Amino acid sequence: MYAAGGNPYGASAVTGPSGDDLRAEVLEAARYQGRRLALTAARLRLGAELATEFASELTAADEAESRSTSQVA
Questions:
Q1: Which of 11, 41, 51, 52 has the largest count of CB atoms under 10 Å?
Q2: Helices (H), 1-73
Q3: Which InterPro entries match (predicted)?
């Protein structure tokens, strides 16, 4: 990132009105940052979906156990 003129907050560039003077290194750094953000978002979403599914399974198991315990008593 730093070699492309970035900063601790991510890729950045100052261009003229047409944007034609954007250096290849800066563009590649921005693309890398975008890919990394998309991958992180996908992982977070998958993790949230798995956590919700796991919680549903636990709830169903608890309810089944509760029913079987109440029938025995």
A1: 11
A2: 24-72
A3: Flavoprotein-like_sf
